[in-house]
Write a structure and sequence with these properties.
This protein has a two-stranded antiparallel ribbon with strand order 1-2. A hairpin with a 4-residue loop joins β1 (84-85) and β2 (90-91). It has a single domain, classed as ABC transporter involved in vitamin B12 uptake, BtuC (Orthogonal Bundle). It is 71% helix and 1% strand. It is mainly alpha-helical.
């Protein structure tokens, strides 16, 4: 193996592969934590687009939910009963914050549904309006409400520590650690993905949803209320965007920063496309996109060993900004490769009007 490491250029590639094999099991929980808001945003996108509604306003929904959840949790703390569950460090303010975040995203989803389904406005423009308004309003309200009260915070959910008997299982132990060494919102991602995957492709609701997204006129003909189902799915999709926002301020950090979603809502849309509009595929895409960013953290936490000293010198010389940009670069590369191969629902982005009204 040392002989392969010494080959010019190719040797560096072998060293990188060896380093990733050694490192990824150790940083797996970090990868899932980074992927959580993207995966939840992607589930929101799937709920919308499988129903025939484009939603590029996920970024704004997540940002609004993050702000409202943080403010609700922080300012409600003095007025709520003091209790704390040992598991996940659950407190009343944190629960209020999550509820406020979810309701905020659902309200914005309802607005998006009204504009796109009832008003039949351009769905792209509707999403842009939500994104721009969320960025401006949260920035203004942050300066008005949060900045004068720097000590406002309700803390964060803590992570669950899985027993070593599970994490030490050969081959799969690191995967168990990846999904269990998390807070409640991140841990729930796998549950949401599996449940939505099953419901979408193995239930009556899923069949109707896919019918509405593919052939709404045919669905209407057999008695499916297209308008009602689209409304319901878009609003329910807001739950996932709300949880993504709550994760950013109530689980990943205990503060709100202007524009802290940092494009995760748009990466979520890329995950929807790369995952072929399936929950499991979207989760896989989210993990792929965030693995690159996690490697940057791994270099600082667990640098390459002396055996991989040549690679270590290269990785340490790369600025942190490069690792931060890698998820976005990979997103662009992946999208360039799948454009034209991933086929969206046939009626996505097309407003629907009943034949009787059209007449």
């Amino acid at each position: 193996m040392e002989g392969l490491y010494g080959i010019p250029i190719i040797g560096i590639l072998f060293q990188l592969i060896a380093y990733l094999i050694q490192t990824i099991p150790n940083i797996a929980p970090i990868i899932l934590a980074l992927a959580t808001p993207i995966a939840l945003g992607a589930l929101c996108g799937i709920m919308n687009e499988r129903s025939g509604v484009v939603n590029i306003g996920i970024e704004g929904m997540m940002l609004s939910a993050a702000f409202v959840g943080f403010v609700a949790a922080g300012f409600s703390e003095p007025y709520l009963p003091q209790f704390e569950l040992e598991l996940f460090n659950v407190t009343a303010p944190l629960l209020v914050g999550v509820l406020a975040a979810v309701l905020t995203a659902m309200a914005l989803s309802l607005l998006h549904a009204w504009l796109c389904i009832t008003i039949r406005a351009d769905q792209i423009i509707s999403g842009v309006i939500i994104n721009v308004a969320a960025l401006g309003l949260t920035g203004y309200l942050n300066r008005l409400v949060v900045t004068p009260n720097p000590r406002v915070s309700a803390g964060t959910f803590s992570s669950f520590n899985p027993p070593s008997e599970l994490t030490d299982i050969p081959v799969i132990g690191w995967l168990i650690d990846m999904f269990l060494d998390q807070g409640p919102i991140a841990m729930s991602v796998l549950v949401f993905v599996i449940v939505l995957q099953v419901l979408l492709f193995r239930s009556r609701w899923g069949l109707r949803t896919r019918a509405v997204g593919e052939h709404p006129k045919a669905a209407d003909t057999v008695g499916i209320d297209v308008i009602r189902l689209r409304y319901r799915n878009v609003v329910i999709g807001g739950i996932f965007a709300g949880l993504a926002g709550a994760f950013l301020t109530l689980e990943a950090t205990s503060s709100f920063q202007n524009g802290m979603t940092a494009g995760r809502g748009f990466i979520a849309l890329a995950a929807v496309i790369f995952g072929r509009w399936t929950p499991i595929g979207a989760l896989g895409a989210a993990l792929l996109f965030t693995s690159a960013g996690a490697i940057g953290r791994a270099v600082g936490i667990r640098p390459p060993t002396d055996e991989l000293a040549q690679l270590g010198g290269i990785l340490e010389a790369i600025p942190n900004e490069f690792y931060s940009a890698l998820p976005y670069v990979i997103t662009i590369i992946v999208l360039a490769g799948v454009v034209g191969r991933s086929i969206p629902p046939a009626a996505v982005g097309q407003p629907y009007e009943k034949e009787s009204k059209a007449a």
